[in-house]
Amino acid sequence: MTQADIFNRQYTGWNTSALQVLEKLFPKDCRRLPGFSPSKVVPNEQGTKTVTQTYELAKECLQINYYGTKITVESLMPLLQLSDSPTIVNLSSFLGQLESFPKESWARGVLSDVDNLTEEKVDEIVKKFLSDFKEGSLESKGWPRYLGAYIVSKTALG
Where is the signal peptide (predicted)? Predict the structure, then answer.
């Protein structure tokens, strides 16, 4: 009997000790691990520091968190199909909740309709987010206001 349990751990943050261990294990690839949310800290209008994302960083975040996980699962499917009890456990972020989206947002409506939700619809949401980001219309289109790419990537996996 083949047992194939795959654990995909995704964390909202790393403590200093964890980063030190990761730097030793993966010195060049540490920031490419699942769960890393590319962003930068910049001063806002009030002069305080805030986390912001450019289009390029948002695209990178979705590539790592959403598409990276999706590709990993697709790649492991043949192995899982050999198992009598195939299991994938995806530990994600508390930010990946529908409540992170405004109540009237299109994406929240699509993701809430679990009976009709398909992989194609989730992919469409991710692509629409990037399109709206590029247009500069995230807020007017009902996307999360802060850490949008991270939230979309985590919710899309949920």
Answer: none
Query: How many domains is the chain built from?
Result: 1
CA gap 79, 75 in Å, rounded: 8
Question: Which residues span the domain enclosing 24?
Answer: 5-157
Assess whether 150 carries a catalytic annotation. Answer: yes
Helix residue ranges per DSSP H, 9-93: 16-25, 55-62, 68-81
Asked if residue 52 lies in contact with residue 42, where contact means CB atoms within 8 angstroms, the answer is yes
Residues 6+ apart with CB under 8 A from 73: 6, 8, 88
Query: pLDDT tens for residues 48-69?
Result: 555 667 898 899 989 988 998 8
Rg of the chain's alpha carbons, rounded to an integer? 17
Return the CATH number at 58: 3.40.50.720
This prediction's pTM: 0.69
